Amino acid sequence: MTLDRLTVLCVGNLLMHDEGLGPRVASELLSSYQLPDNVLVLDRGVMGMAILADLRAADKVLIVDALDHTGFAPGTVLSFTPDQMASYSGLKGAHDLRLTDVLAAAALVGIDPKVDCLGVQVKEINSLEAHIGLSLPLEDAIPAVLVAIEGWLADQGSPIIRL
Description:
Helices cover 29% and strands 21% of the residues. By secondary structure, the protein is of the alpha/beta class. The protein has a five-stranded mixed sheet with strand order 3-1-4-6-5, with helices on one face. Helix 1 (21-32) crosses helix 4 (136-155). It is globular, with a radius of gyration of 15 Å.
């Protein structure tokens, strides 16, 4: 039996406070877990059309990013599908390119992995001045995000092991 190619695609801008959630999660996954051969964890910073190659190389993708305007308290972890993401203003990459735009472009060229999303409601995103580091609610949410990723990977038949 061949296992699906699974990608945990973490996106975000380290210089914009809570927008750095994705890179922080990628760092934790890569340093603290033993990953099966079919699982790839990527820190893609500010995503854009460049992630099309990542989508092409995967059967299933979990996108991890910061969210805003969800109506939930800062630090709330939300799991959803791309179809449900329109109400969240997060999941935008460079030049305000939305993930839905990237997925639509991928579909146009025949790239169609199964995509799930995991996000955390931000407390602070400041695009006017650089600030590296997450707010306390997002830092406190990291363990829950990791548990959610562990669960997603286990559901796909590829559990990861904490070192």
